[in-house]
Amino acid sequence: MAPIRFESEGVVDPAPLAQPLPFEFSGCTAKNRFLKGAMSERLATWDGKDLPKRGIPTPELLNVYRRWGEGGYGVILTSNTMLAYDQLEGAGNLIIPRDATFEGERFEKFQELASLAKAQGSLIACQLSHPGRQVPAHIQPNPISASDVQLLKSDTSMAFAKPRPMTQDDINSVVDGFAHAAEFCYRAGFDGIQLHGAHGYLLAQFLAPRTNQRTDSYGGSLTNRARIIFEIASAIRSRINDPRFIVGIKVNSVEFQDSGFTPTDCASLCSQLEAHGFDFVELSGGTYEKLAFCHTQESTKRREAFFLDFAEMIAPHLSKTRAYLTGGFRTTGAMVNALKTVPGIGIGRPACHEFDFAKKILEGTIQGAIKELDESQASLSTMLGGTQIKLVGHNKEPLDMSSDENKAIFMKSVQKWLEIQKNNADGSAYGFPDIVGVELQPYGTPYVS
Ligand SMILES: Cc1cc2nc3c(=O)[nH]c(=O)nc-3n(C[C@H](O)[C@H](O)[C@H](O)COP(=O)(O)O)c2cc1C
User: Fold this and answer.
1) Distance from Cα 227 to the centre of ligand 1, integer Å
2) How many Å lie between the centroid of ligand 1 and the Cα of residue 39?
3) Please, what are the domains in the chain?
4) Which of 306, 360, 435, 449 could be stapled to 327 by a disulfide with Cβ–Cβ 3.0 to 4.6 Å?
5) Which of 226, 207, 87, 80 is closest to 144 using CA atoms?
6) Which residue owns the Cα nearest ligand 1 atom 29?
């Protein structure tokens, strides 16, 4: 049976999405308007105790990028790639630690990843991130952040320790970590990097007054709260003397939190990003306190994109930096419509259920994404995305989640995974759930040869 899909209102010509998108500062051109959003696969090597064995691309992860490389996206972003072995979003993250050299296994596997993703003409950019306070406590019991504001209640099932405010030395070291990782990517053949300044990770913690209560030159005004971002950008530029290397960023358009980062802040930040030569800014929203991977406003449901109202306020502040809007796009009609506001469209979950989603939309063979779980179950639907990626990594196809039978199998798989997590004191069972009945790497098998 063919999967059940979202449908555009009438058949919509996808041609506007096929238009190339030139980047003003680097001079690079994306072959079309699609950006495959960063999605944590948690498929890199992991070892509970031996830290340098963490974060190297595995054969499964390379499969995933080969498939996305064949998927027709103008730009492909990697998952959030971390800068230290123990400052992670989750076990199995890609890692470019500060002592990584530009040779050896880690470097060669990143080279391979970049070349597979680029093989059909997509641009590949590595998303670089530091979790700050959003690092699971079992991975990092002593996190750092802009200030000592602990994440006590979250939309996730994870626990987070109280962070300590970063010293100037900490800030210098994180800035250098981002710049080193960017140089590593440049030398490994990536077209660029994206700083992760959204979803409540470290750079977003600096941007939001809720988590940044500093009284020094990194706190207070927006210029101060954004200072670390511009220090990173200039450190990258001084290491990579090649204007063709793309520097972009993902930021929140809104956080839905008291003293959170606001659309007005975002609009001012965008003007500053353009003044500093950022090639693109991807607009998203939410933090772990309030995940925003589903509709929070009735008004946007018909237009699909979660943050379109905010993008309309922000995009006019950009003339050279290209804006991508990510979150909620499911039909050709909504995507083409959004191009009136932003030049590019970011795709997350539909690219997990169908790796060649962009290609099929552009060819006109489909007009909408496959229906999956109810998106108001944001955390579950994110987990499902990870499971689908894992299946592809193991040379299986994603499950058709418009089928009730497959939904039931997934829910059973999640139950099993949750039970395993309960007895996972040493953290050896990691990554997203395996599908019960499908033969994959068993839980907890470290991807270390
Ligand atoms: C499995 C999964 C992992 C994700 N990991 C990241 C990440 O590493 N970095 C990031 O910026 N966003 C991450 N996201 C968020 C997506 O990039 C995107 O913003 C979100 O899914 C909304 O878009 P969508 O409605 O098209 O899925 C992740 C989403 C999923 C489903």
Assistant:
1) 26
2) 5
3) 15-395 (3.20.20.70)
4) 306
5) 87
6) 39
